[in-house]
Specification:
This protein has 16 helices and 12 strands. The strands form 2 sheets. It has a 7-stranded mixed sheet, sandwiched between helices. It has a 5-stranded mixed sheet with strand order 8-9-12-11-10, covered by helices on one side. About 35% of the residues lie in helices and about 15% in strands. The radius of gyration is 22 Å and the shape is globular. The structure holds pyridoxal-5'-phosphate. Pyridoxal-5'-phosphate (PLP) binds next to helix 5.
Length: about 400
């Protein structure tokens, strides 16, 4: 079986075949001996003689050289992710999604530069702006992704990159990525996007104007809540630079983790499709509940971000939020505690459902929470990551918990 890196093939076909080069799954005289690229555990790569060492190929992925440069298990995963990302020349792997975001920002930014970061960015991304980037002389300014005019006005000669996250992974606002990217590029600003929510299956970010697209593979690609990793994919202009910076930082992922990630990746399309269908049904159900002030699910008609989502996205995932009518923080805790089928934990994208509180107000600086149009008293949110349980069971669980909440509120 040849590896499938042909983007003309359907997503399912690419998910099945990507990264499975015969050179990695079998031996030269018995190609294709096993289905999956095996785990190559190696710090040392051996040369048969000095002539071979002297003639070793350039330091690029796909050539044995030294363990930090990877081996077939990591190369297979990177190649598979590149095959799934239209417009990508290569993918660099990082030990976490956070490392991927930082790896990309450290590739595009230099001391004295300004980074414009979307105000709905995931909290650790915001922390980079106030912490590590600041320590290295890079200034971060936040912008409201829904305010195009303010965004354009915020670009200054020192602005070198923007970081987008769409939908924002707490409050789910979708931003107009093509418009923001076009405005940034017109001013020579590099566009970096955290595309963890949709993955390239639902939003081919490079095709929509991003220069570098990042995923926390920990979420949908891993899919089983047992492995952490991140990726950054890019076209020609940035791919080599991303890899060089990652190598300079000494970044390498474990071949065991890469193998586990590849295993998860094969079923990502199926899981995303099922989780999207289930999440949408649950979002619809919640939107009709008297206890719920607002459902924040861009896949739901009428929800904030729906129009842009419907225009730009071909898929979604199981992650969305809803806001309780009135409530207190303690009553919301009671609701989350009353859920029997939802774990309480800070991740998402796994096969199992999760619930966490959403309180973005203290971290926002360029926009407000509650969102405009929402009642000021409706501010206690719950984020659900819908897994692969039966939708009817999850709805019954939510119904029970809302009754407990009503009694406590
Ligand atoms: C939107 C988003 N981006 C990035 C990350 C970071 O990924 P990781 O946990 O793999 O570092 C997360 C993790 O929660 C996330 O939600």
């Amino acid at each position: 079986m040849a590896h499938h890196d042909n983007v003309d093939l359907g997503t399912g076909t690419r998910l099945v075949g990507a990264g499975r080069r015969a050179a990695w799954t079998g031996t030269a005289d018995h190609p294709g001996a096993v289905v999956n690229p095996p785990i190559y555990r190696a710090s040392t790569h051996l040369y048969p003689n000095m002539a071979a060492l002297r003639a070793h190929p350039a330091n690029v992925d796909g050539n044995f050289y030294y363990g930090r440069r990877g081996a077939p298990t990591q190369w297979a995963l990177a190649e598979a992710l590149t095959a799934l990302e239209p417009g990508a020349e290569a993918t660099v792997l990082y030990p976490s999604g956070v490392a991927a975001i930082m790896g990309a920002l450290m590739t595009v930014l230099r001391p004295g530069d300004v980074l414009l970061m979307t105000d709905n960015a995931y909290e650790p991304s915001r922390a980079m702006g106030c912490g590590l980037l600041k320590d290295f002389g890079i200034e971060t300014r936040w912008f409201d992704p829904a305010d195009m005019a303010a965004f354009e006005a915020a670009i200054c000669p020192r602005t070198k990159a923007i970081l987008l996250e769409s939908p924002g992974s707490l409050t789910m606002e979708v931003c107009d990525v093509p418009a923001l990217a076009a405005a940034a590029k017109a001013r020579g600003v590099t566009v970096v996007i955290d595309n963890t929510w949709a993955s390239p299956l639902g939003f081919p970010a490079l095709r929509h104007g991003a220069d570098i697209t990042i995923m926390s593979l920990t979420k949908h690609a891993g899919g089983h809540s047992d492995v952490m990793m991140g990726s950054a994919s890019a076209g020609k202009a940035w791919a080599t630079k991303l890899r060089a910076r990652a190598q300079g930082l000494g970044i390498v992922v474990s071949p065991d983790d890469a193998w586990l990630m590849l295993r998860g990746l094969r079923t990502m399309g199926l899981r995303l499709a099922q989780e999207t269908t289930s999440a949408l049904a649950i979002a619809e159900w919640l939107s009709a509940r008297p206890e719920v002030a607002r459902v924040l699910c861009p896949m739901l008609p009428g929800s904030p971000g729906y129009n842009l989502w419907a225009r730009d996205f071909s898929g979604g995932c199981g992650l969305f939020s809803f806001v309780l009518k009135g409530s207190t923080s303690a009553a919301r805790d009671t609701l989350i505690d009353a859920l029997g089928l939802f774990g309480i934990g800070f991740s998402w994208g796994g096969f199992e459902s999760l619930a966490t509180p959403v309180d973005p107000a203290p971290i926002r600086t360029a926009s407000t929470w509650p969102l405009s149009g929402m009642d000021a008293g409706d501010r206690f949110g719950v984020r659900l990551s819908i897994g692969l349980e039966d939708t009817s069971d999850l709805i019954a669980d939510l119904e029970r918990a809302l009754a407990v909440w009503s009694a406590a509120a």
